[in-house]
Amino acid sequence: QVTLVESGGGLVQSGDSLRLSCAASTRNFGSFTMAWFRQAPGQEREFVAAIIRGAGPTSYADSVRGRFTISRDLAKNTVFLQMNSLKPEDTAVYYCALKYPGRDSFDYWGQGTQVTVSS
Fold first, then answer.
1. Cα(106)–Cα(115) distance, rounded to whole angstroms?
2. What is the model's pLDDT at position 22?
3. Sign of the CA dihedral 116, 18, 10, 71?
4. Which residues lie across from 95 on neighbouring strands?
5. Of 10, 58, 41, 105, which Cα lies nearest the Cα of 49?
6. pLDDT by residue (tens digit) across 54-95?
7. Those residues with Cβ within 8 angstroms of residue 42's Cβ, 6 or more apart along the chain or in another chain
8. Most buried of 15, 17, 51, 57, CB within 10 angstroms?
9. Which ranges in the chain belong to alpha helices (H)?
10. Are 38 and 113 in contact (CB under 8 A)?
11. Mind spelling out the 3-state secondary structure of 55-97?
């Protein structure tokens, strides 16, 4: 019903920036909460950032607050994650996710995009 396609990952050095994109194949894009998660090798998946449906307040994990910014382009059905001042500990596969209103968990996930930060 919904597909999410991430792009923009790559290999960068500490202190560099990247912008991830997630294109969603759905109508009423503004009605859904969107989020980014990440998973490092041998670690559990962790929350990174979210933009809430409607008015669109944002939320961030403590580890990325002040460095990462989540936003969306309604006309293009795309959510972004601007990542600045990247650190080696940011290395992970980053996943885009979509949640319908009133749901307890995210309903759709992308395949992920690799971000590698060298020291």
1. 22
2. 97
3. positive
4. 37
5. 58
6. 778 999 999 999 999 999 999 999 999 999 999 999 999 999
7. none
8. 51
9. none
10. no
11. CCCEEECCCCCCCEEEEEEHHHCEEEEEECCCCHHHCEEEEEE
Residue 88, Cα to own-chain centre: how many angstroms? 18
Q: Which residues contact 18 (CB under 8 A, 6 or more apart)?
A: 8, 9, 10, 12, 83, 86, 115
Count helices and strands in the chain by DSSP H and E runs? 0, 11
Give the pair of three-digit tokens for residue 56: 């669109």
pLDDT bracket for residue 1 (50, 70, 90): confident
- On whether the CB atoms of residues 8 and 113 are closer than 8 A, the answer is yes
